Amino acid sequence: MSDNWKKRTKAVHGGTRRSQYGEMSEAIFMTQGFVYDTAEAAEARFQQVGDDEFIYARYGNPTVRMFEERIAMLEGAEDAFATASGMAAVNGALTSLLKSGDHVVSARALFGSCLYILEDVLGRFGVQVTFVDGTDLDQWKAAIRPDTKAVFFESVSNPTLEVVDIAGVSDLAHAVGATVIVDNVFATPVYSNAIEQGADVVVYSATKHIDGQGRALGGVVLGTREFIRKTLEPYLKHTGASMSPFNAWLMLKGLETLSLRVNAQTNSAELISQALEGHPGLNKVLYPTLDSHPQKALCLRQMGRGGTMISLDIKGGQAAAFAFLNALDVVLISNNLGDAKSITTHPATTTHQRLSPEQKVTLGITPGLVRISIGIEDTDDLLADLRQALDAAAAL
Question: Are 69 and 206 within one domain?
């Protein structure tokens, strides 16, 4: 494999292992265990696992390893560990690193399940967590202490699409020796330069853009070989959050078309956000590369493009938002994202429903806010569908 390959080539060929049959498509090794020629060979493998050796599917599997190596090449990471879901990846990255008494600084704008891990799970085990406005470097600077163990944030927040300065936060964290953990799902591996910009650990829900076709759960944690194998792997292999071989095969197939899909989705998202900005039925359009977005320059510097997600704040609150959703024809109502099909949801009553009214106000999750994951359908069809749904919402 060539280190000089571009991302699209790495996404197709990286990490490939072929059996003696020389198969074109990657093999699915649907096995939970592995056979040893002798008792001595089993003993030797348990003492030292080689680069292309496996013990048990919870510890590793050839198909899963292909996915790990391929996405590590794509991300520019030394190593990766694939998990059963995106939340297993988030939980593993944090919990494997932290212990009672440790201090974490986190952006306040987080997906509901991420917030649950930080507030409830880590808090229950004695980890101190300080929340800040992720877009405000002064708040990060004030919150990070000499004993801060880690910082955590979504590089682009869900669902209000705030962009956090990876390099700026990383500089502050590294000055006290803290580990920078970035949930990078909205940026996607296509637009990610998170490790180059200072992130130590990058987390993806592979369920989203990597699979990209609504088929399977999966997650992955990427970082240094030291972190992945010495800190993360012991925790995950003993607690059981491993990815199945079949799902790893689906993720490998997803990586092959990832760049094509994400760039097509982003092309549509850019055009749709521009076309809808200023619409009389909207309070605002949220998209990271619109001139109205406060972090436009940062987004372009950090990602190069704005990604596949748009959020609309519809005039008329929840009733109008529901009327909008119910009038859609092409765009589907679901809480997933990153799919080839366009998907929308009402965060205040679905993905972020557990937040208090005060938290929703603080995060900008208004009753009229809808999050839209743009798919690969024809852009004109999507725009026409959104416009007619906005007309339906305005007719209330």
Answer: yes
Give the contacts of 101 (CB within 8 A, at least 6 positions apart). Answer: 126, 127, 128
Instruction: For residue 24, tell me if it sits in a domain.
Output: yes
Q: What is the pLDDT of residues 383-393, one digit of tens each?
A: 999 999 999 99
Please write the tens of the pLDDT for every residue from 172-227. 999 999 999 999 999 999 999 999 999 999 999 999 999 999 999 999 999 999 99
Q: At what angle are helices 379-394 and 245-276 packed, to 10 degrees? A: 60
- Identify the domain containing residue 311 by its residue range: 259-394
User: Is 374 domain-assigned?
Assistant: yes
- Same domain, yes or no, for 83 and 114? yes
State pLDDT tens for residues 164-174: 999 999 999 99
Looking at the structure, tell me whether residues 163 and 283 fall in a common domain: no
Which residues neighbour 279 within 8 Å (Cβ) at sequence distance 6 or greater?
285, 387, 390
Do 378 and 264 reside in the same domain of the chain? Answer: yes
